[in-house]
Amino acid sequence: MTAESTGAGSTRAAAPSDEHWVLRLYVAGQSPKSLAAFDNLTALCEDRLQGRHTIEVIDLLKHPRLAKDDQILAIPTVVRKLPPPVRRMIGDLSDTKRVLVGLGLHRLT
Amino acid sequence: MSIDSDKRPPRKRPRPPALRKAPTGITGLDEITGGGLPKGRPALVCGGPGSGKTMLAMEFLVRGATQFDEPGVFMAFEEHAEGLAENFASLGYDLNALVKHKRLVVDFVRVEPGELEESGEYDLDGLFIRLEDSIDSIGAKRVVLDTIEVLFSGLENTAILRVELRRLFQWLKDKGVTAVITAEREEDGLTRYGLEEYVADCVILLDNRVERQMATRRLRIVKYRGSAHGTNEYPFLIDEGGMSIMPLTSLGMSYKASTKRISTGVPRLDAMMGGRGFYRGSSMLVSGTAGTGKTSFAAHFAQAAIERGERCLWFAFEESPDQIIRNMRSIGIDLAPAVKGGRLRLEAMPPTAFGLEMHLVAMHKAVNEFGPDSVILDPISNFSSVGSDLEIKTMLMRLVGFLKSRQITSLFTYLVMGGTSEEATTTAVSSLVDTWLLVQDVDSGAERNRVLQLLKSRGMAHSNQTREFVISDRGVELRDVYVGTSGELLTGSALMVQRAREEAQVIVQTQEADSLKRELELMRQAVEAKVLELRATFEIEQAKALRAIAQGAARSTARIGDRSDMSLHRQADAAGTGPTTGPESGGAS
C-alpha cells in the first residue's frame, strides 16, 4: 500500500477462526464529518469485529493523487478492502443500520 | 479558423470590454460566439444522447492544448479514459500523446448507480481534491466535466448534491479555469437536473433532429451573458476533422465585388457577355431540361479555370467522378490530368446521404480545405428530394454568400423537369445568381436542337439573342445566328436547309452572270465579225476605187498626149478637150 496508515485503529490480533478485516477511511483534513466518521467506524468495528480489523485513514489533502487512483468522490468514504468483495460507503456513518448493511457487518454477531 | 470580424457588419451593441473569451478553435464556433467561451467561467453544453456534447467538449480541450497553449482536464463520468482515447483516435486526436506530454489529464470518475451506500452527511471534497490535483499537475486552464449529472444517479441525497454542485461551479470560477459542463437535455426544459441554474454565463444547446428520415445536427447558443452572439440554429458536422459549425448568417452581404472578368470556357458565350465572360466571384446558373448540355458547360468552365492555373472544386450530386471524367472526355475535355494534379477535385455527394444543412456544412468544409477559385454544383435540383424549394433557396443563399465572401466564382446547374415551365421553376433560385444561362431543346420539324439564352447577367451588357449550340467531340460550340423569314431562330436541319437555299441562290446567280457574260462575249464576237466584214467590203471597195482612179489617170494622160498629138496634128487649141471613150468623152463632144 502506498497509503500512509495513521494507525489510529485497533490492531489487535485476529481470532484464528475468522477473517481479518481491512477498512480504509478517506478523509480531507480534520473536518467534523471526517472525525465523526472515524469515531462511528471505530465504535462499530470494536463492537462487531472485536479487534479482527485494521482501519487505515487516508487524508486526501496529504495524498491528493489517491483520490483519482482509488476513485474517491465523496468525503468521508470508507472502503472495505478485505474481505472481498470491495464495498464502499460514504457519509459520516451516523446511520448505524445502514453502515452495518453497507459494509456487510450485519451478518456478524 | 480565423474570425472574420472585418467581414462582418458593424455591431449595434458594443461588446463589454471586460468579458474575455477562450477561443475554442472549433470551426465556426468562435465566429458565432464572437471569440469563444467566457474565459475563466463555466459554460453549459446540453443536448440529447449522441448530440455531440462530448465531442465539443473534447475538441475544446484538445485545441486548447495544441493551439492556444492551454492544457486541459477532462473529467469523464460516463466513459473510460481508454474508451475516449479510442473514440477520439478515429478523429485524429492522439489523447494518449497529449496526456504523455502533460497537455491533458483524463480522469474517469466511476459512478455506478446503487454502488455507493450512504450513511449520514458527506460532501464532494474527494471530487474537488481530484480535480484540483489534476489541474495543478499540468497547469490546466480548461476543464471539462462530462457529464456531471451522472452523479444524480449515483448519489441518493440530491440535496447534498445540489449544494455541492453549486459549490463546485463557484470553485471553478475562483480557480479561473474555463470550464465546459455537459448535461443531458430534457424534453420540456433545458437540462434534466436544472444545471442551467448553476451555470448562468453561457448555455449552448446541441440537437440532432431527424427530418425526412435524415438527421441534422444543430447548435444554438441559448444564452451568453454579456456578449453578443448568433442566435440562430447552426448546422454542424462531425467527421474525421472534428466539429465544423457553419456560421451561416454571420456572413452578411458586405463582400467585395470584383471587376475582373473570367471566361466561361466557351469563347462565343464569352462574346455574348460583352466579349469578356463573367465576373470573378460571381455566380452562374445553367438551367435546362435533361440532356441539354448543362454538365458540358460546367466542364468547360472547370477546364477554363484549370487553364488559368486556378483550383476548381466540383460537387457532383448525380454522377460519380469517374463517370463525369469519362463523359466529358467524349466531348473533348479531359479532366483527369487536373484531378491527378490536384487542381480539380470532384467531390461526389449523394443528395440523400444527409439533410440540406449537413450538405451545406460539408460543402463549406470542403471549400475551406481545398481552397478553390471556383466551385461547381451539378445539379442543385437534386436537392429537391431532401428539401422544399424554399429550403433549397435558403441553402443556396447561404452558400452563394459564403462563396462570394471568398471571391469564389460559382456555377450551378439546375435540371428542369420536362413539361414544366423552365423559367418558372428556377425563378426561386435564379434571383440568387448573377448570370443565368438557359439551355433548351427546341423541337423543329423531326428533330430537337439545343439552344441557349442568356436570361440575365448582372453588371454587364449582354446579348439577348437565342443561340443554337452543338456538342461534338470538340465540346460546346455556338453556331452562327440564322433568323428565319418570320424572325425565329433557325436551328438544325432548318438551318441547313436555309444554308442550302442560300448556297443554291448563289449558284444560280453565278450561273446567270456567267450566261450574261457569255452572251456579251457572243455579241462582242458578232460585232467584231460584222466589223471585219465591213472592213473587208470597205477594203474591196477601196481597192476597186483606187484601181479605177489609177486607170482613169492613165487614160487622161494618154488622151492629153493624143490631143497634143492631134492639135499638133490639127493645130488645135491646147486647152480644148476632145471626146474620148467614157462619159467624159461623150459629154465633151
Structure report:
By secondary structure, chain A is of the alpha+beta class. In chain A, strands 2-1-3-4 form a 4-stranded mixed β-sheet, covered by helices on one side. Chain A contains 3 helices and 4 strands. Chain A has a single domain (21-103), classed as Glutaredoxin (3-Layer(aba) Sandwich), CATH 3.40.30.10. Chain A is 28% helix and 22% strand. Residues 1-17 of chain A have low confidence and may be disordered. Chain A is globular, with a radius of gyration of 13 Å. Chain A has helices spanning 32-49, 65-69, 96-103; strands spanning 21-27, 53-59, 77-82, 87-90. The longest helix of chain B has 79 residues, at 492-570. In chain B, β22 and β23 form a beta hairpin. Chain B has helices at 29-32, 53-67, 81-89, 95-100, 125-138, 150-154, 158-175, 267-272, 294-307, 321-329, 336-340, 356-370, 389-405, 422-430, 492-570, 583-588, and strands at residues 21-22, 37-38, 42-47, 72-76, 104-108, 116-118, 142-146, 178-184, 202-211, 214-224, 233-239, 242-245, 261-262, 278-279, 283-288, 312-316, 344-348, 374-378, 409-415, 435-444, 447-457, 467-472, 475-478. Chain B is rod-shaped, with a radius of gyration of 49 Å. Chain B has a 9-stranded mixed β-sheet with strand order 5-4-7-8-3-9-10-11-12, with helices on both faces. Chain B has 589 residues and is of the alpha/beta class. In chain B, α12 packs parallel to α13. Chain B is built from 16 helices and 23 strands. Chain B starts with 20 loop residues before the first strand and ends with a helix. Residues 1-7 and 576-589 of chain B have low confidence and may be disordered. The interface between A and B is medium-sized, with 35 and 25 residues.
